[in-house]
Specification:
Helix content is 50%, strand content 7%. The chain has 15 helices and 5 strands. Helix 6 links the parallel strand 3 and strand 4. Helix 12 packs antiparallel against helix 15 and helix 14 packs antiparallel against helix 15.
């Protein structure tokens, strides 16, 4: 297993082939659902690229570069540390601060007093401290504004020959055209159920293989969603949601108010709010599919099929960064039809 990364062997093979042929691009855009390991794959790739041995993208663990990472396992890196500081001087990492709506331009090109002499674009252009390569990971690429994207364009279009930049987002639909056109796009799929289940058991999130498999199926390939399911409040959430979905009289206003309250209690930061919304819709999808399996020819099953389709549409809107309260309100109304 490559650096404990599971579920993305085809992507690893793609990078290995490009590396062996000397055709590795300078700028990549990783896209895929939240919680499938894009950022950890990027960190593992950077670790391999910085290794002085350059052995088939497998870190040797012995050179000066590898020793800086110590025994750091990409699957255990705490990217939520504030700030997260890579242990290697030739690896750079930036992400949207929790209190910002967009990636600050200062992280890319420095503040007004140090414009062009600080920030990611400046750092990546400098001579490597060790070895002959540098790497940069830009998380939250969904949150570029036009100003920030324009500041990065030259670096993406003409990256230093000894550098690799990896941008991480969730969908190409959320990227500015100027960003997409300058990066090779790498699409990550949801983790297979068996892979996610084994991760949940190995890390102690799930207490048994049966529980891990159940959560993995419900999480639809997302480790973030599986962690939400492991939260003790989820069963309460499921119970309250089912009461509304099976009530004899549909109360769209009351349901929307209740669900928006559950999302808003997480604060203003977008990622956890969107994870909670996806979790809610995921529980609804699970319920509708269960109703359809119970009696595929019944009126209830046909109604559930319509509701399932509308819920899947709502999930797509969540992934497109649509306004969450509006998505929930629109969905609640549609469910009554």
């Amino acid at each position: 297993m490559w650096q404990h990364i599971q579920g993305h062997d085809s992507i690893l093979n793609r990078f290995r082939q490009a590396f062996q042929r000397g055709r590795l691009a300078g700028s990549f855009l990783f896209v895929g659902p939240p919680g499938v390991g894009k950022r950890r794959f990027a960190f593992a790739l950077a670790t391999a690229l910085l290794c002085k041995q350059q052995n088939h993208l497998s870190p040797c663990g012995e050179c000066d570069s590898c020793k800086l990472f110590g025994n750091m396992d990409p699957t255990d890196v705490d990217f939520n540390a504030d700030p997260f500081l890579p242990p290697h001087p030739d690896l750079y990492y930036i992400a949207k601060p929790p209190d910002k709506s967009f990636l600050p331009m200062e992280l890319l090109v420095g503040d007004k007093e140090h414009r062009g002499k600080a920030g990611l674009s400046y750092n990546i252009s400098r001579t490597p401290f060790l070895g002959n390569r540098k790497a940069a990971i830009i998380n939250d690429a969904d949150f570029f504004n036009a100003e920030g994207a324009n500041a990065l364009l030259k670096t993406l279009e003409e990256p230093p020959t000894d550098a690799v930049l990896i941008l991480i987002g969730t969908s190409t639909a959320k990227q500015l055209p100027t960003i997409k056109s300058r990066c090779q796009i790498v699409r990550f799929s949801p983790l297979p159920t068996e892979v996610l289940s084994s991760i949940l058991v190995r890390t102690g999130i799930a207490a048994s293989a049966e529980q891990g498999e159940r959560w993995a199926m419900q999480a639809e390939g997302s480790l973030d969603q599986a962690r939400e399911l492991a939260d003790g409040d989820v069963e309460t959430l499921r119970s309250e949601l089912l009461k509304s979905l099976t009530a004899p009289r549909w109360d769209a206003v009351g349901l929307a108010a209740k669900l928006n309250g559950l999302v808003e209690e997480l604060g203003k930061d977008a990622p956890p709010r969107r994870r909670r919304t996806r979790l809610i819709f995921g529980l609804a999808i699970e319920h509708f599919r269960s109703e359809m399996r119970a009696d595929a020819s019944s009126d209830t099953a046909r109604r559930s099929a319509r509701r399932l389709e509308r819920t899947l549409d709502a999930v797509e809107q969540v992934d497109r960064n649509a306004n969450l309260p509006l998505v929930i309100e629109t969905w609640a109304v549609a469910m009554g039809g």
